[in-house]
Amino acid sequence: MMFLKLGRLFLIISVVVLIAFTGCETVQDVVIDSTQEESMMDAVPMKIVLLINYPEGGRDTYLGWVRTVAPTLQAFDEVRRIRSYENQDPTMKPNRLVEYEFDSFLEMAAYLNRPEIVAIMDDLPNHASDVHLYTFIQRSDYQVTEKGNYPVKSVYLVNYPLGGKATYLEWIASISDALISPPEVKAITSYDNYYGETPHRFVEFEFASQEDADTYIAEELQAVNVELETRAHSWELLHFDQLSDFINE
User: Fold this and answer.
1) What is the DSSP string of 170-195?
2) How far apart are CA 15 and CA 13, in angstroms?
3) Domain annotation for the chain: domains and CATH numbers
4) Model-level pTM greater than 0.90?
5) pLDDT digits (tens, 9 = 90+) for 115-130
6) What is the three-class DSSP state of 107?
7) Radius of gyration of the chain (CA)
8) For residue 90, with 0-12 CB atoms within 10 Å meaning exposed, 13-18 middle and 19 or more buried, which class applies?
C-alpha cells in the first residue's frame, strides 16, 4: 500500500515539477487532463497524512528513528508545518498520525521530489509495521477559526455514499456554523481525498485541552455520529494527543 501510493505520487509530482520549471505545454496537457488542473496550479492548501502502526514492542525504537530524521524533514521551506500525534488509546490502530501541510500542490511536489525526502519515505516502512499514506486537498466547509498549535485532535475518516457526495456536503453546510460556534473547539478543517480514493474525506477538530475535547464530543459530536450512520457510507472517529517530534511552523 505504502509503496504503490508513493510510487504514483512521485511519478505525478516529478512530471508536474518538470512542467512548472520548463513550461512544456504538450506534457502539461497530458498530465493535467488526468489529474486536477485547478488544484495543481492554484494555491489550494494540501495535506499529506500518514497513519502508522508501531512494530510490536518497537515504539521507542521507532520514535528514536524519527528523532534522527526530523531535522531533515523540517529543513525545507516548501513544507509549512509537520505535526505528529499518538492515538489516545494505545490498544487501537492506527497508533500514530503524522501530517505534512503545504500551501499548494506545487509546494508539496517540490518537497516530495527532494532526494533527502524520497530516501526517508522509502525507509519509513522498514521502521513501522504498517504505513498508509493519503493525499488530501483542503475544502472550505468551515470558517477558519483559531489556528494554532493545539495538543488534542479528533479526526473523522469518512466515505461518501455512492453518488451521494453533494447531498452529504449539503448536510455539512447546514450544520457547520453550529459546529464552529462552541468555545471548546479551536479549529475545524475538512479535506477531500485528492485522488478520490478511500477515505474520501478527512476532518479534524482541534482542542486546547482534553477537558474541552470531552465536553465538545459529548455535546456536539455525539449527535453528528448518530447522523453519520445514515448520511455516510462508512466513517471512523479517532482521538489523538500531540507529540513533540516536530516543531516546524
Assistant:
1) HHHHHHHHHHH-STTEEEEEEEEETT
2) 5
3) 2-138 (3.30.70.100), 152-242 (3.30.70.100)
4) no
5) 999 999 999 999 999 9
6) helix
7) 18
8) exposed
